[in-house]
Amino acid sequence: MRSLKVRFALLLGGTAIVVVLAAAAALAAIGAAERTVDRTLEAQRRLELLAELSGRLTQFGLAAVETVGNPDNQPEAMAIARDNADRALATVDEALARSFPPSDDPADRMQYAARTRPMAQLRAARAVLDRQVALISRQTDPERRQDAIKGALNGFGAMTGQPLSFLIEAERRSMALGSEQARALSERLRVAAASAVAAALVLLAILYRGVTRPTLARIEEVRRAASAIGRGALDTRLSVATRDELGLLMTNVNRMAARLARRESRVAADRAALEDTVAARTADLRAANARLEAVDQSRRRFFADVSHELRTPLTVILGECDLALRSTSRGGDPGPVFATIKKRAQRLKLRVEDLLRVARSESGEIAFDKRPLGLALVLSEAVDNMASEAARRRVGLTLDPGTRDVECLADREWIRQTVESLIDNALRHAAGLSRVEVALAAEPGPVGRITVTDDGPGFDASEAELFERFRRGKSAGPDETGFGIGLALARWIVEQHGGTIRLGAGPDGRGARVSLDLPALDPAWDAQAAGHAAGGAQVKESAA
């Protein structure tokens, strides 16, 4: 039998059959007991009715004696006694009819006939006595009436005594028989109950040995295997001997253990990879912390430089103002003094503008007014603006506009300021500088490339470090200080225009070169797009 469902179905079916048979046997026993008790009770009831009938017949005989002895009295007592005797006879007949209904059983018919014949004799005795009383009552001689009534009573007693005795004895035997049958039935029920209990115990033992114990043993085996797997013994396997439901369960447990083993191996590999990743990320975090420390040092130096950059021009301005006041009071020429004041104020203004540009770029307050413009004209303006500073430093500043102009969609002022900032960085930070060249070239893409090249010593740090804010390179002298924000701000502006900025070496590997690549406009770019771009956002001016 390969299916537990079939086994348990047979078990339940057999149990149900046993229960049904036990219930049917119990109902049959109960019915037999009820019938036996009913027969006994009916015999007792008939016995009581016969006793009552005997009393009624006795009363009828006494009423007959009284009627014959006193003929002048009203015959009502005789009639009442007669009616009572008739009713008692009818009651006994009805009881007999109920106890012995029409049946094909010969024994029942014989019992009914044996009881109906004595009842007929009792009716006949009552009728005979009634006729005799009527005849005796017509005689006039009292002595003869007395003798006649005595003879009638003796005959009535003889006619009723034997049938009543027979009926009473028959009912007593019926009661005794019912008691014996009840005791025999009780004994049979005890035997049947003991047999049923024994059969049930045997059946339970057979079912336990054949179905329950093997099933429980296999379930216990599955439980132990599951506990072992739960403790981590993933090499645990169950022996599958059958292909029933428990066999399928054991197979699934084996598959689950195998999958868990494979998954554990993958988890171990993932854990090792995760540990490697954590180690790598930890190293990255340490490097980031080191960079943050460097940035923090740069910020502290930045604030020190801000203080120096702002304090030095203000000190010079205040000192020059004092000199101007003294010169004026003495009649001297204040022109050189005011020239110095103007120079220092312009430097202070540039530093403050740098700080404002950085703050606006970080807060997102800068809005670009992008319009189509030629880069050659922008570069020419930047070179012209920085020419005086280059001449003061005795550095040659030249412009190479290329073979043709490049048109871009950009903010004119911000591009110019970016180029000026790159020229200013070259002038201030390149030691031994003799020339700076600003060039424009059209590259495929289309791209407009702006380069600022010098013949100085070149960059002293990596490109990533120099593009960090507040990171400064080497300075040409103690007076050439700055905030270290020029390249960072330049990269931000170029990226906002969709371009790129790169640092490199000059020709033949000497000097430094900064390259700005800006997307050029397509020659097919139409006037409608130009008008739409011209209506863009305007630059937000600071209240300062």
Protein described:
With 544 residues, the chain is α+β, with helices and mostly antiparallel strands. It is 71% helix and 8% strand. Helix 1 runs parallel beside helix 3 (106-136) and helix 1 (4-69) runs antiparallel to helix 4 (142-230). It is rod-shaped and about 205 Å long. The model is unreliable at 475-483 and 524-544 (pLDDT under 50).
Anisotropy-based shape: rod-shaped
CA(first)-CA(last) distance: 97 Å
Number of helices: 11
What's the number of extended β-strand segments?
Answer: 7
In round numbers, the mean pLDDT is: 77
- Largest beta sheet: strand ordering: 2-4-5-7-6
Radius of gyration: 68 Å
Strand content: 5-15%
Low-pLDDT regions: 475-483, 524-544
Order of helices and strands: HHHHHHEHEEHEEHHEEH
Subcellular location: Membrane
Domain Histidine kinase: 305-522
GO biological process, one term: osmosensory signaling via phosphorelay pathway
GO molecular function, one term: phosphorelay sensor kinase activity
Helix and strand layout, with pairings?
Layout: H1 4-69, H2 76-99, H3 106-136, H4 142-230, H5 245-330, H6 335-363, E1 370-374, H7 375-392, E2 396-400, E3 407-411, H8 412-429, E4 435-443, E5 447-454, H9 463-466, H10 486-496, E6 500-505, E7 512-519, H11 527-534
Parallel strand pairs: 2-4
Antiparallel strand pairs: 1-3, 4-5, 5-7, 6-7
